[in-house]
Amino acid sequence: MTALLDNFWVLLALKVLIIAAVVPGVALVFIFAELKISAHMQSRIGPYFAGGRWGWAQPLADGIKFMQKEDLVPEDADRPVFKFAPMVVLMGTLAVFVIVPFSPKLIVRDLDIGVFYALAAGSVTTIGVLMAGWSSANKYSLMGGLRAAAQLIAYELPLVLAVVGVVIQAGTMSMNGIVVAQIEPVFHIGEVAIRLPFLLQGQVIGFAIFMIAALAELNRTPFDMPIAESELVMGYLTEYSGIRFTMFFLAEYAGMFSMSAIAATLFLGGYYLPGVPEGALDVLGPLILMAKVTLLVFIIIWLRWTFPRLREDQLQSLAWRWLIPLALANIAVTAVAKVVL
Amino acid sequence: MALRVSKVPGIGLMKGMWLTLRTLFKRPVTINYPKEKEIPVPRARGVIALDTEACTVCMLCARECPDWCIYIEGHKELQPPSKPGGRPRSRATLDRFDIDYALCMYCGICVEVCPFDALFWSPEYEYSEGSISAMLHDKERLTDWLATVPAPPPLEKN
C-alpha cells in the first residue's frame, strides 16, 4: 500500500480524483444553502419537495435536469472556443485547490509560491469568461464578457495587494507556511502563549479588501454586472445550456469554496483553531477549515441577498479610488510595523 | 452638534444586513399550499354563490358585469290569482344562471348591484380546473356554494 502510494502517478491520480469528487460535492451543498438561505431571507420556504425532507435533493435534481437538456451551440458561434470556455472556467477554479492546506499533511502540493499560484490560477477563469462572451455570437454575451474582463482587471489588483500584507507578515508565500506563521505565538502573558490569526494581528483592512475583491472576482452580487439578468439576460451565460451551463454553475460555487478557503487560510488561521492541540490537527484540521469556509460562504450569500447591484462606474470607482489606495496604505503600514516591531 | 447614528458612514449597509439576518430567522409568510391550506379571511372574495329563490331574473347583474361573464335565461309563468276571481299573476322563473369564472375578474359589482340579495361572496377558492370550459359554473354549482357563505356581519347600532 505504501509502495503504491509512493508511486508519483498513482498518488497524482488519487489526488485528482479526491479533488474532483469533493469540490463539486461541496459546491452542491453550497447551492442548496444558497437556495434555502435566500428563500428564508425573503420570507419564503424555498425548495421543499425534492428528496422528501427540506427538499435536500433539489441541487441534484437541478443538475440532472441540466444534463438532460440539449447542448445547444448557436449557428454563428465560434464552435471550439464556445465548447472549451466552460472547461477553462472549471479548470481554473479547481486548480486553486492544489495549494489549499486542509491539515498540516493534507495538501495536494505545498508550493513555495502558493499564494502567487492561487491568484494566478484563479485568474484563468477570467479568460474562460471572455472566451464564452466572445464566442457566443450574441451582443449580451459579448457585453457580459467585456464587463467581466473590466471588473476582473480592476479587482485583481486590490485582491493581490491585500494578500501582500499577509505575505509580509508571514515572511513566506507557502500556504502551509502562512498557517504555521499564524500558529506561532505572538506574545506571552506569563506562561500562556497568545496565538492569533492574521485577522487579529492587524490585517482587518486587508481581510475586508480581500473579501470585497473576492466577491467581484466571483461575479457575485453586488458585483454581478457581467451576468446582470435585468440588463444582459444572463451575460456570458446567455447562449449556454445543458452540461456546459452546469459546468459554469458548478464553477461559480466551487469558486466561492476556493476563494473562501484561501481567505480562511490567509486571514483566519486555516486549519488551526486556538485551543486545539497540534497533534489533533491532522484529524480536526479539515473540519476546522470547512467550518471557517462555511462561515465565509454564508457571509457571501448574505451579502448577495441584501445588496442591490452596483452601477458599472460605481464599481470601477470603488476599486480604483478606494480599494487600491487603501490596500497600498495597508501594505505600507504592515511593512513599517514588521520592520519596527 | 450631536453625533447622529444615521450619519455614521456605512450604517445603511449594516441596517440592510441586519434586516435580512432577522428575516432569515423569522417564520416564512408563505405556506406549502397543497400540503397546508391557507385560511382566507371570512369575507374574502373567493367565489360567488347564488340564491335561486331570491333571484327575480332582473338581469341587473348580467348587464352591470364588466366582463359579461354572467349568462341568464328565464321565462314567465302564470301563477294562480291570490284572490278568487282575480287576475292571474305572472312570475319570472330562472332557467339558466351561469358565471364563467375564466372571465370573471372578481370585482363584485354583481353582488353589489343585486337588488334582492341573491348573490353572495364565499371565501372558497379551490375550484381550479384542467379545462377552461369547466370554469363555467351553472345554476346548481352556484347554489352549492351558498352553504359556504359566512353569516353577514352584525348590523351597526343606531
Task: Describe what this molecule looks like in 3D.
The complex is a heterodimer of chains A (341) and B (158). By secondary structure, chain A is mainly alpha-helical. Chain A has one domain. Chain A has helices spanning 2-6, 8-41, 58-68, 79-95, 114-135, 139-170, 175-183, 204-217, 229-232, 242-267, 281-304, 312-340, and strands spanning 187-189, 192-194. In chain A, strand 1 and strand 2 form a beta hairpin. The radius of gyration of chain A is 21 Å and the shape is globular. The relative contact order of chain A is 0.14. Chain B is of the alpha+beta class and 158 residues long. Chain B has four helices and five strands; from the N terminus they run H-E-H-E-E-H-E-E-H. Chain B has helices at 11-24, 60-64, 109-113, 139-144, and strands at 47-50, 70-79, 89-100, 119-122, 136-137. Chain B has a three-stranded antiparallel sheet with strand order 2-3-5. The radius of gyration of chain B is 26 Å and the shape is elongated. The model of chain B has no long low-confidence stretch (mean pLDDT 86). The chains are: A mainly alpha (341), B alpha+beta (158). The A-B interface holds A 37, 39-45, 48, 302-303, 305-307 and B 13, 16-17, 19-21, 23-26, 28-32.
Reconstruct the topology from this structure.
The complex is a heterodimer of chains A (341) and B (158).
Chain A (H helix, E strand, L loop, with lengths): L1 H5 L1 H34 L16 H11 L10 H17 L18 H22 L3 H32 L4 H9 L3 E3 L2 E3 L9 H14 L11 H4 L9 H26 L13 H24 L7 H29 L1
Antiparallel strand pairs in A: 1-2
Helix pairs in contact in A: 2-10, 2-11, 3-10, 4-5, 4-10, 5-6, 6-7, 6-8, 6-12, 8-10, 8-12, 10-11
Chain B lengths: L10 H14 L22 E4 L9 H5 L5 E10 L9 E12 L8 H5 L5 E4 L13 E2 L1 H6 L14
Antiparallel strand pairs in B: 1-4, 2-3, 3-5
What is the subunit arrangement here? heterodimer
Taking all Cα atoms into account, the compactness measure Rg of chain A is: 21 Å
Characterize the main sheet of chain A: 2 strands, antiparallel
Q: Please give the share of residues in helix of chain A.
A: 55-70%
Backbone structural class of chain B: alpha+beta
Largest interface: A-B, 14 and 15 residues
Output the structural class of chain A. Answer: mainly alpha
Number of helices of chain B: 4
Number of structural domains of chain A: 1
Beta strands of chain A, count: 2
Shape of chain B: elongated
Helix content of chain B: 10-25%
Uncertain ranges of chain B: none
Low-pLDDT ranges of chain A: none
Global morphology of chain A: globular
Largest sheet of chain B: 3 strands, antiparallel
Tally of DSSP β-strands of chain B: 5
Terminal CA distance of chain A = 49 Å
